[in-house]
Amino acid sequence: MNQNFVLILVLLIMLSIVNAIPHQLHKRKTKFGSCGLSPVLDVSVSPDPIVANKNATYTISGILKKDITDAYQVFILYYVDGAEGGNNQNFDICTKIKCPVKAGTKFEMKQKSLVPPGLPPNGYDIGVGIDTKDNSKFELIGSACTHV
């Protein structure tokens, strides 16, 4: 009987100590990395995590091996289970930065994108990249991907 009383007392003390420790929720930051296709862009997004059917602002920067000219565009792609989502967007890069940007020179830009509705809370991918505007001549000069 004394052993049960001691065990219950110890459990209550441990429970009160655990409740006294402040709980911190660690926000997981979305980290973009290599897509394996081209030089990696530095990308961050706000809000983080993104919210479906709302605008997200992407900060895109990097140092590329090719000049950025008005022949290129920025794209943001949303993938669910490997299939492209319904809100893949292309943007004229030279409306956000002064073109041309010489190879080896750092650039930085911000781009808003409407996040598609119906993205699951997890299990989707985002791809950000710079390629040619000419659809017949795909040339990816920088990219970054993430899985959320």
From TrEMBL:
Pfam families: E1_DerP2_DerF2
Biological process per Gene Ontology, one example term: sterol transport
Function: Catalyzes the intermembrane transfer of phosphatidylglycerol and phosphatidylinositol.
Keyword Signal: yes
Stretches assigned to the MD-2-related lipid-recognition domain: 32-144
Protein name (Swiss-Prot/TrEMBL): Phosphatidylglycerol/phosphatidylinositol transfer protein
Signal sequence extent: 1-20
Subunit (UniProt): Monomer.
Sorted UniProt keywords: Lipid transport, Signal, Transport
GO molecular function, one term: sterol binding
InterPro entries on file: Ig_E-set, ML_dom, NPC2-like
Organism this protein belongs to: Gigaspora rosea
Family to which the UniProt record says this protein belongs: Belongs to the NPC2 family.
